[in-house]
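ok so for the tutorial part 2 we go from a plain amino acid sequence to predicted structure tokens. step 1 is just haveing the sequence, like this:
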Amino acid sequence: MRGWGRWKLYRTTVAELLRVASLALLTSVVLGASWALASAAGHDATVTAVAFSRVTPVSRSLARDVPPTAPALLQVAAPTVPLTLVDAGGVSQLRAPRGVSIAEALAVNGIELGPQDGLSIAADAVVNAGDVIHLMRVADYDTVVREPVAFSVQVIYDAELAAGRTSVVTAGVTGLADNTYRVHIVDGAEADRTLVGSVLIVSPVNEVRRVGTKPAPAPADIEQVILSAAAAWGADPNQLLRVAWCESRYNPYALNARSGAAGLFQFMPATWAANSVRAGYAGASVFDAVANANTAAYMFRNGQAAQWSCK
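step 2 — the prediction. this is what the tokens look like for a chain of 311 residues:
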């Protein structure tokens, strides 16, 4: 009986050890299986991410001086769709995750949109396979250009200087200014520029000129005709001499073939027809120096000198 008791105790101890070993083995198998499943899932995610990263980004730089912040590239492990981008750089084939917006699709491909850029499809529209996206780059920037400032010319009419002569009293000096232009860029090319500011660096110096009005000496007979007409009508003889010189160079037979102006004072046909009668020379030829000079003197005395461009 005592030997039997020892044998029973021995069997009980062995059975307990076997049970503990079986539980440990089962636990190891479960943990190993869990680790294998987790490793496989991580490997699939890595493969998907790597496969997605194989979509070749298309680099498109923004227009000058436009630094918009690009959205973070989407890290979406999803099926992709083909797209076509048309811009100033040409035509590019892209791929983007299905279901993203046009702006996100461009961002995935490394293309940043500026605040003024134009798209043929709304930026928030959902992409569809085969979409053709036209992108127009638009930007503005300011530039400062140092440019010359033209001087003005002051004219002094000089009755002592021969008509047709000009004398420079004070030479003009060109100034300088820093002009700020706002330049409008479309697809990399300047489309327009507008002056938005100017800072004068060097002031220009105006030029002063004397312009002669003294007529050249008239032939004695023509001078006498003009002076007699001025005296008869109370007109300014010097003014009449200046105008006759300017208009015809004292030639009573001068004719402007383009306008029809004729005679010593270059009367237009209608003007001559109306005023020669009033001056008492009805029917006289416009090439008659006496009739021409007296009709001019009559008109000058009556305040009609403005009809001549010569003064």
